[in-house]
Design goal:
CATH superfamily: Cobalamin biosynthesis CobH/CbiC, precorrin-8X methylmutase
Structural class: alpha/beta
Number of strands: 6
CATH class: Alpha Beta
Number of domains: 1
Radius of gyration: 17 Å
CATH architecture: 3-Layer(aba) Sandwich
Number of helices: 11
Largest sheet: 6 strands, mixed
Strand content: 5-15%
Oligomer: single chain
Length: 211
């Protein structure tokens, strides 16, 4: 017989985190990386991210610094923009930038023969971007890395977790070898909910008095 657990509404998240920590066991991750992993598992119910997530050694501190400096967060799809906590971001002065659905992006993509995701990243180069978060479009992540290699773009952290079967795993494999701060999830797993969960974890970390 199915047993329903009765938990007060205010305690649901804390109880979820307790269950996640118990099932994860010892991870060996630093506290900041653990908080990102925990919130991703909370958002997806998928403990496999324990094996798939990869962090540059300076990823957490770079993300926190970018948020605290009031730099903007660039996302590849509007769904991500909707999921990022406006309440947590507002005190720092940054904003979420998404240029995917703008007419100018469609026009530029048509002119260049590129995807709208690539055009959106290109158009956002001058938007004081501190964190790039890609959860949907591998072409967006590849474009970001190309612009950084050319010295045309300099975000503090690249959060690249596109999901799918065409160049998703490949783009993340490339990102995992970069010398600059990144967070990624190797293989086909990923998605906008993963990107949003990681960003919201970083926002909570930035709101703490110490990293």
């Amino acid at each position: 017989m199915v047993q329903i657990q009765h938990v007060a509404p205010a305690d649901i998240e804390a109880e979820s985190f307790r269950i996640i920590a118990a099932e994860l066991g010892e991870t060996g991750l630093p506290p900041g990386e653990f908080q990102v992993l925990r919130r991703i598992i909370h958002a997806t119910g998928d403990f496999a991210f324990k094996e798939h997530l990869r962090f540059h050694p300076r990823a957490i501190e770079a993300g926190i610094a970018a948020i605290r400096a009031g730099r903007n967060i660039l996302v590849d799809v509007q769904m991500a923009a909707a999921g990022i906590s406006a309440r947590l971001l507002a005190p720092f002065g940054g904003r979420v930038v998404c240029r995917m659905n703008e007419p100018e992006t469609a026009e530029l993509a048509k002119e260049q023969g590129s995807t709208r995701a690539e055009a959106a990243m290109l158009r956002a180069r001058q938007d004081n971007v501190g964190i790039v978060a890609v959860g949907n479009a591998p072409t967006a992540l590849l474009k970001v890395m190309d612009m950084m290699a050319a010295g045309e773009f300099a975000p503090d952290l690249v959060l690249g977790v596109p999901v799918g079967f065409v160049n998703a795993a490949e783009s993340k494999e490339i990102l995992s070898g970069k010398p600059y701060p990144f967070i990624t999830a190797l293989g086909r797993k990923g998605g906008t909910p993963v990107a949003v969960a990681a960003l919201n974890a970083l926002l909570r970390l930035a709101a703490q008095k110490t990293p």
